[in-house]
């Protein structure tokens, strides 16, 4: 069987349909597109772990995630085939038809394309921005779920993080965790050496009176260098040394599936923040970034008079 990256874009799209239905069932039948995407990548061993941070450069110089094309088209086709529906932007939900599907991946994609391809063709006749390839196998279009602008600024943030020195990245991570209501201890984990394996340490108070110790680990690694389970084990050892009840492991790359399992083992679960989630948190807390409002014209202005 071919690996995911060895498949054509259309084959990737067809392949993703079954994992999308499977993960949606695990997530309770409804999910944000972003969480669904992460769940599919995390639980399918054939998909590279760095898929959601592996940005490419287009001929025009803009950044994009190849995975988004296949994923978004898979979702769009499942919606056309009434396996999924979109209650609102950014949310997908299983339909009764999607919940009841019991076949394999090939049966699913064949069933979906039987419905969706004619619909894409009809749409292409009305809208020349959709290019029908005419071979009943692939229709070139771009759903609106992930805009070029979003992929571009996400790539820019990740690139900026990668360009930080290790010491400055650790400082950045402590600043981020502080924004998340953790009171940073200036005496632990703030030195380049002799920190006992920690890059930060602090305290968080919940329920107005309960205070817990939080250990922080920061790894500014390249996207092709995933954090493995031994790194999680070493961090857990450092947590033990400082009696930390909680651990936060932050990286610009990704975590191997074994690392994710290791983080959930034992009595203390370690929170993992990979490059993709890190970008979300940077924008959520507006840490050294500023939001910019952009307006785009809707289809009304492009439709025939």
From TrEMBL:
Residues 16-101 form the Restriction system protein Mrr-like N-terminal domain. Residues 125-150 are annotated as: Disordered. SUPFAM superfamilies: Restriction endonuclease-like. InterPro entries: Mrr-like_N_dom (IPR025745), Restrct_endonuc-II-like (IPR011335), Restrct_endonuc_IV_Mrr (IPR007560), tRNA_endonuc-like_dom_sf (IPR011856), Type_IV_Methyl-Rstrct_Enzyme (IPR052906). Keywords: Endonuclease, Hydrolase, Nuclease. Its EC number is 3.1.21.-. It comes from the Bacteria. Residues 162-281 form the Restriction endonuclease type IV Mrr domain. This is Restriction endonuclease. GO terms for molecular function: DNA binding; restriction endodeoxyribonuclease activity. One of its GO terms (biological process) is DNA restriction-modification system. It holds the Pfam family Mrr_cat. The lineage of its organism: Bacteria, Bacillati, Bacillota, Bacilli, Lactobacillales. Residues 127-136 have a biased composition (Polar residues).
